[in-house]
Specification:
With 85 residues, this protein is mainly alpha-helical. It has a domain at 1-56. 79% of the residues lie in helices and 0% in strands. The chain has 3 helices and no strands. The protein is rod-shaped. Keywords: Membrane, Transmembrane, Transmembrane helix. Residues 1-24 are annotated as: Disordered. The chain crosses the membrane at residues 43-62.
Length: 85
């Protein structure tokens, strides 16, 4: 093969055909669908996390805090100073 044959071959390879345009359209269509699917999955996770956070916050607010027992150190401190401190 000489240089002229290679130049002709490369020129033919660079020339788009109708099949090339169809392939590009199929690629871009698949790419858009994949991006849309990823975006929908991400939106689903975010809404699930927000709903979970709202449920936990609601339960925390509605349920009263348990009465925590006084620690032994606090009992000794209170007895040393008396009840009226």
């Amino acid at each position: 093969m000489n240089d002229h044959d290679l130049d002709t071959l490369f020129a033919q390879a660079r020339t788009p055909t109708p099949a090339d345009e169809g392939a590009a359209g199929r690629f871009l269509s698949g790419h858009r669908q994949r991006r849309t699917r990823q975006r929908n999955i991400r939106a689903g996770w975010i809404s699930t996390l927000l709903a979970s956070a709202a449920a936990v916050a609601g339960l925390t607010v509605l349920r009263p805090a348990p009465d925590l027992p006084a620690s032994a150190a606090y009992g000794v401190y209170q007895s040393a100073w008396g009840d009226g401190w």
